[in-house]
What we know:
Strand content: 15-25%
Structural class: alpha+beta
Mean pLDDT: 90
Strand order of the largest sheet: 1-2-3-4
Number of helices: 4
Low-confidence stretches: none
Number of domains: 1
CATH architecture: 2-Layer Sandwich
Distance between the termini: 42 Å
Radius of gyration: 18 Å
Shape: elongated
Oligomer: single chain
Number of strands: 4
Helix content: 40-55%
CATH topology: Fructose-1,6-Bisphosphatase, Chain A, domain 1
Amino acid sequence: xxxxxxxxxxxxxxxxxxxxxxxxxxxxxxxxxxxxxxxxxxxxxxxxxxxxxxxxxxxxxxxxxxxxxxxxxxxxxxxxxxxxxxxxxxxxxxxxxxxxxxxxxxxxxxxxxxxxxxxxxxxxxxxxxxxxxxxxxx
Length: 138
């Protein structure tokens, strides 16, 4: 009976660790989509003298859009917003964990990148900061 108890404790600990590992690995779905979209934004800017700032422009194929409707595996929802000064000056791309996907319970809930390549992240509690960004983007 003691052996079964010890095996149960070890199994519980290893399953929790494995789940965290899988969630961290799945974050690549968000970060790679944001980096791909950021690169596409620069191509869009060269052709249109402004950045794409609507959901339609995000999803439509070039030259009228970026051709990136979502993340590759669908774990995150993509959105784009113009910078405070407008679409000619910049944008912020955001990847937010899908409410129905495997990342909904992940501590890193949202990732951002802007026209300057500045990265950001928000945890499940809504907190942001350099430490959270470093942990989530690694």
